[in-house]
From TrEMBL:
UniProt superkingdom: Bacteria
InterPro entries the UniProt entry points to: DNA_methylase_N4/N6, N4/N6-MTase_EcoPI_Mod-like, SAM-dependent_MTases_sf
Transmembrane segments: none
EC numbers, comma separated: 2.1.1.72
Catalyzed reactions: a 2'-deoxyadenosine in DNA + S-adenosyl-L-methionine = an N(6)-methyl-2'-deoxyadenosine in DNA + S-adenosyl-L-homocysteine + H(+)
Protein name, as recorded: site-specific DNA-methyltransferase (adenine-specific)
Similarity comment: family membership: Belongs to the N(4)/N(6)-methyltransferase family.
Coiled-coil zones: none
Length: 379
């Protein structure tokens, strides 16, 4: 089923578009090979996503039988032009890095905003240089241990709140050369600035050791390094309590809204009118995620959701004992609203709820439903 769909997807895909496929352990290796066969090795990347916790009823069975619990699934990322020009939301570090232990006293948010505005400028006027020197001349460097005197339970929050004026000192041979040259011509204080030939401005600790060959002297702000790239192992997205996400009760294979929105929003080249296509719509998480990305990025994306006519009554009859209750809950939800008992109706209901939720911000206005006739394609 996947091979012909991927061939269709390849023909429909924008030159800078992406395909994301969610898959479990059973089929991931075969599917990766298929994707590499169709799109090429360099076009395919696998992301591991933590999808459940090592707790709950399933762990009792794991302990009893001595098996290994399944905690992850996979996202296969495909981009025909190569995995590039994408950007995932950075993850905030959970704890403070103790290397950042220098506090800039007499340094305000306005001062920081001015520095951020000019640090990468190709040209600095005399007035800007003069203002920067005035700001830096008033700064005193203090150890964090002297500054924070509050309770230990609140220290981590205080550190993150003040990360914009907390630094560490690092080595840099290029900054050292610039600093030595500046010191020959003028007196410097606790903090001063140097500018590279490329126009970048660096802050320097004025009291660095001049006897060392490569001293720690460049000041790096903690706020510039509070976040890390999620890489190819994602454990930061909440995957529990999803049964009623989107306003409809559905459990089987439901993906977190945050996960799907992260994937859709990862493309830097998103534009008004771009179309998000989901071949396996399920409960229509992709539809709501498209609205959410439209709202957050201030653009208007369109979506096409495709779902086979999956009858919930049939799913209930063939389900394991532990899955009958959530399927029954979905059926009761549709019965209460006088809707047919199939998965598509859950998706349609979720889209109605989502449109009301996002219509102001994302300009969501409605959707059309088409029932496809039998295909003429031969596979």
């Amino acid at each position: 089923m996947m091979y012909p769909r991927l061939l269709v997807a390849k023909n429909l895909l924008h030159p800078e578009g992406m395909i994301y496929i969610s898959i479990d352990d059973n089929e991931v290796f075969n599917l990766v090979k298929i994707c590499e066969d169709i799109f090429g090795y360099e076009a395919v990347k696998v992301i591991v996503v933590k999808m459940s916790e090592a707790s709950g009823l399933k762990m009792a069975s794991v302990k009893k039988r001595g098996t290994i619990p399944k905690l992850k699934e996979y996202i296969i990322a495909i981009k025909p032009s190569g995995i590039n020009n994408i950007e995932f939301t950075p993850i905030k570090k959970p704890v403070w890095d103790p290397a950042y232990n220098i506090y800039l006293d007499n340094f305000s948010r306005e001062h920081r905003a001015f520095y951020d505005a000019i640090k990468d400028a190709q040209y600095l006027s005399d007035e800007q240089l003069k203002k920067l020197d005035e700001i830096l001349s008033g700064i005193t460097l203090r150890p964090l241990s002297e500054v924070y005197k509050g309770p230990a339970s609140k220290k981590n929050a205080w550190l993150f709140d003040n990360s914009w004026r907390i630094c560490q000192c690092v080595k840099s041979s290029s900054v050292y050369k610039l600093s030595e040259e500046k010191k020959k011509h003028r007196k410097t204080g606790d903090v001063f600035a140097v500018k590279s030939a490329q126009g970048r401005v660096y802050l320097v600790r004025g009291t660095y050791s001049e006897t060392r060959r490569n001293p720690r002297l460049q000041l790096i702000f903690a706020s510039d390094n509070l976040f890390v790239h999620p890489g190819d192992f994602w454990s930061h997205i909440k995957t529990t309590g999803l049964n009623h996400e989107g306003g409809v009760p559905y459990k089987n294979g439901k993906k977190p809204l945050k996960l799907v929105a992260e994937l859709i929003g990862s493309l830097k080249s998103l534009n008004d009118g771009d179309i998000v296509l989901d071949f396996f719509a399920g409960s229509a998480t992709t539809g709501e995620a498209t609205m959410l990305v439209s709202k957050n990025n201030n653009i208007k994306l369109n979506y096409i959701l495709i779902q086979l006519p999956e009858k919930l009554e049939d799913a209930y009859q063939s389900a394991r004992a532990d899955m009958k209750k959530p399927i029954k809950e979905s059926m009761d939800y549709l019965n209460e609203r006088g809707k047919p008992l199939n998965l598509t109706e859950l998706g349609k209901q979720r889209m109605r709820i989502s449109i009301e939720k996002y219509k102001t911000e994302s300009q969501a206005e409605g959707f059309k439903v088409f029932k496809l006739d039998a295909t003429h394609m031969k596979t």
